[in-house]
Amino acid sequence: MENRAEFRRRIRGVQDYLSEKNIGALTVSSEKNLAYLFGVGTGRAVVTEDSCVLWVREVYLGVYASLFERAPYSVRVYRPQAVERYVRRLAPARMAFEDLPCMQLKVLKRKFGVGRVVVVDVVERLRMVKSPYEVSMLRASASIAKVGLRRAHEVVAEGVRELDAVAEIEAAIRRAGSETPPFEGGMILAGGAHGADIHARPSTRKIGRGLVVVDLGARFAGYHSDLSRTLSVGALTRAERVVLEAVASIRDESVDRLCVGVKASEVAAYAEKRIEGLGYHFHHALGHGVGLDIHEKPSLSPQSKDVLTEGMVFTIEPGIYVPGRFGVRFEDTIHLTARGPKNLTESP
Amino acid sequence: MENRAEFRRRIRGVQDYLSEKNIGALTVSSEKNLAYLFGVGTGRAVVTEDSCVLWVREVYLGVYASLFERAPYSVRVYRPQAVERYVRRLAPARMAFEDLPCMQLKVLKRKFGVGRVVVVDVVERLRMVKSPYEVSMLRASASIAKVGLRRAHEVVAEGVRELDAVAEIEAAIRRAGSETPPFEGGMILAGGAHGADIHARPSTRKIGRGLVVVDLGARFAGYHSDLSRTLSVGALTRAERVVLEAVASIRDESVDRLCVGVKASEVAAYAEKRIEGLGYHFHHALGHGVGLDIHEKPSLSPQSKDVLTEGMVFTIEPGIYVPGRFGVRFEDTIHLTARGPKNLTESP
Question: Does the model's pTM come out above 0.90?
Answer without folding.
Answer: yes
